[in-house]
Amino acid sequence: MALNMRSPDVAPRPYSLRARLLVFLLVPLLALLGVSIVTDYREGLHIANEAYDQALHSTVLALSAIIDHEPVLDSDLDLPTQAEAVLRVDMVDQTYYAIFDGNGALLAGDARMSSLIEEFDPDDDNPDFRFDVLDKQDIRVAVYRYSPNTHAPRGAVIVVAESTHKREAAASRVMIITLFSNLLFIVTSLLVVFVGMYYAYQPLVRIGQKIKAREPDDLRPIDESAAPREIHALIRAMNRLMSNLRVAGIAQQNFISSAAHQLRSPLAALQTQIDVATEGQQGDILRRLRDMQASVIRLSRLTKQMLALARASPDANRNVEMAHMALEELIENAASEFIDQAVLAGTDLGFELAPAPVWGVAWSLREMLANLVDNAVRYTGSGGVITVRCGTEEGGNAWLEVEDNGPGIPEALHAKAFARFARLDDTQGGFGLGLAIVKEVAQLHHARVNLHPATEGRGLCARVTFPPPDGFPD
Amino acid sequence: MRLLLIEDDVPIANALVEGFARAGISVDHLVRADTAESALELTAYDLLIVDLELPGMNGLELIRRLRRAQVALPVLILTARDALEDRVQGLDTGADDYLVKPFLFPELLARVRALVRRSQAVGSSDLVFGPLRLYLNLRTASLCDAPLELTGREWDVLQHLMLAAPRVVSKQKLAESLGNWDSEISPNAIEIYVSRLRNKLSESGATIRTVRGIGYRLEWP
Q1: Are strands A156-163 and A137-146 parallel, antiparallel or unpaired?
Q2: Smallest CA–CA separation between A300 and chain B, in Å?
């Protein structure tokens, strides 16, 4: 009910596993503490009482020994002074004693203690110990019934009592020790759990960090062997989700790829028909045909790029065969394909090629180069200068660079530029797939793509850095 | 010039027949590859354009049979299949060029001309590009049917450019293939030959474009 009352936009506060575990642990521990304190206290008190009762018992025995030495017990029983001194030696507690005969007549000691003698109960221990009050003071009393014999024909009752200061002190000491040790136990357990949980969590935290550090389209399964057994089920479920996502992604790419493929033939027909129809036309019809031609060329380019994108992804190239190749030769051989476009756009396309060995897939590298050059030509426009460079860094990393002196891309938009259909400038005729293709090809080659401002201060330089061909990861 | 086109997509075929006709090239069109061999026996074609996916026999099978029968006719594959395996397989089987649909008609025309030019250069003694004609046996040349005076090196450079057009010829490779053990040719020397050639071609409309950092390309509008 309480859940239903909550307004839907307030998310329930996530609970902490650690807090939960601590609470679950704390409740039984506290209950245990209660039980333990009561039993420990009672047991401790019992032991202390027994010890002190033993001392009281000795006193009783000493008094009874005095009676044993009397020829016949009578009212002028005289306790030796030493015995009295012994009885009063206790520094903490006051000791009282009295001896009565069988009829309750005081023979020796403190007359007030007659009130402490109760009806004789044969079940009572002898001596019988109990707590009582004398002159508003708590006392422990031992009552000893001396059986009638020749020394005491009517029997005797020996009553010894002492105040309870020692016992109270012992009780509070027992209490403190019990409380302290139990609290220490609880605090230590909670601390151990708290710290233990922290270390137990570390694998979870590490897995979280690893997933967080991934590229958005990295859907490889998480390695469960390094994770604790308890979360294997969770990891397996996540892996299944990721593999589902990947399968869905591949299916989507396959669909795009076959759709684009099916578009090729009708597009070719349309394009050729328009190309042929344009010839010899004039005026309005020619203008219309030219517009149609431009649209069909755009459409063709889009299908080609969509296919290239679907095909360049590492997922589509799981079994592709890589080979050693010279980037500079690949660029030189591909150069002819770019010249016409560059000439048509009025840009000066040039090359600065140095040896750059890479381990790669020729057609996809060509696709990457074509898209980098196409982007540069498109965004630089008439009068622009575009230079394609390649070479090898000191560490053996080959690189490829396409630099233009166009308007460039503000640094804040560099990351966005690689997204599919990201068009930073709507006045250009592109579809925003070029850099996405470049990124996919780079991923396939374990290469890095960076955008930075051109050396002349104006324009953009796109640089792809490849791993050394011998250190290529499998 | 006469081509045989085997294409089952009729709108493409119709447009191509018309387009080639306007460019002065006559085209015979077949929808199936099965009948192509007899057509090739009856008529001397300069080039075969063939689609890969055809009803009945496919394009690759036709090329394989032609090459087995020692037919040297240049073949261009025109197809929607653009995967690397398809290209490699097509060229390995014996095709001379491979163009993926959709294509721009001028590009197809340029490739057809280049293929025919190269195959004729092998069989005959003339190499033709636009208004330019090289007589291979005599090592002479003509421009717009008038004799063109060229030194030996200039003729060599022009031959390379004409054979390669519309592709770019690397300056480095030009220097390597023109030089020999006795006389090395520096890239600078190539620049001089090209500059002289430009002067000699200036009136004709044929031009030599410099591709910065690589080399040269012969162009004819």
Answers
A1: antiparallel
A2: 6
Could you tell me if B220 lies within 8 Å of chain A, comparing CB atoms?
Answer: no
CB pair distance less than 8 Å for B214 and A349: no
Residue percentage of chain A with pLDDT more than 70? 88
The DSSP result for B36-76, as a single string, is HHHHHHHS--SEEEE-SS-SSS-HHHHHHHHHHTT----EE
**pTM above threshold 0.95:** no
DSSP structure class, residue B84: H
Query: B115 and B136: one domain?
Result: no
> What residue in A sits closest to B108 (Cα-Cα)?
A272
Q: Are residues B18 and B56 in the same domain?
A: yes
Q: Any CB–CB contact under 8 A between B24 and chain A?
A: no
Cross-chain Cβ contact B102/A268 below 8 Å: yes
Same domain, B138 and B118: no
Optimal mutation site among B81, B82, B207, interface A, most CBs of chain A within 10 A: B82
**Of B80, B100, B123, which one is at a domain's C-terminal end?**
B123
The reported pLDDT for the residue numbered A84 is 67
CATH code, domain carrying B77: 3.40.50.2300
Q: What ipTM was reported for this prediction?
A: 0.71
Q: What interhelical angle do A327-345 and A362-380 show, nearest 10?
A: 30
Q: Sort out which chain A residues have CB atoms less than 8 A from B209's CB and list them.
A: 339, 343
Q: Does B110 touch chain A (CB under 8 A)?
A: no
pLDDT at B137: 80
Same domain, residue pair B135 and B66: no
Rounded Cα–Cα distance for residues A33 and A277 (Å): 98
pLDDT of residue A2: 43
Query: Same domain for B26 and B99?
Result: yes
Two tokens, residue A456 = 């002349």
Q: What is the mean pLDDT of residues B50-57?
A: 88
Residue A10 pLDDT greater than 80, yes or no: no
Cross-chain CB nearest to B15 (options A276, A336, A388): A276
- Of B96, B123, B150, the last residue of a domain is B123
Residues B158 and B199 reside in one and the same domain? yes
Provide the pLDDT for residue B3: 92
Residues B19 and B72 both lie in one domain = yes
- pLDDT tens digits along A375-397: 888 888 888 899 999 999 988 89
pLDDT for A1 beyond 50: no
| Alpha-carbon radius of gyration of chain B | 19
Name all domains of chain A by residue range, CATH numbers in brackets: 22-173 (3.30.450), 218-319 (1.10.287), 320-471 (3.30.565.10)
Q: Do A339 and B217 touch (CB under 8 A)?
A: yes
Number of domains in chain B: 2
Sign (positive or negative) of CA dihedral A80, A81, A82, A88: positive
**What's the domain range around B144?**
126-219
Average pLDDT, stretch A202-227? 82
Per-residue pLDDT tens over the stretch B93-112: 999 999 988 888 888 998 99
Q: Does residue B95 share a domain with residue B21? A: yes
Q: How far apart are the first and last CA of chain A?
A: 57
Q: Which of A314, A312, A219 is nearest to A257 (CA)?
A: A312
Q: Do A300 and B102 touch (CB under 8 A)?
A: yes
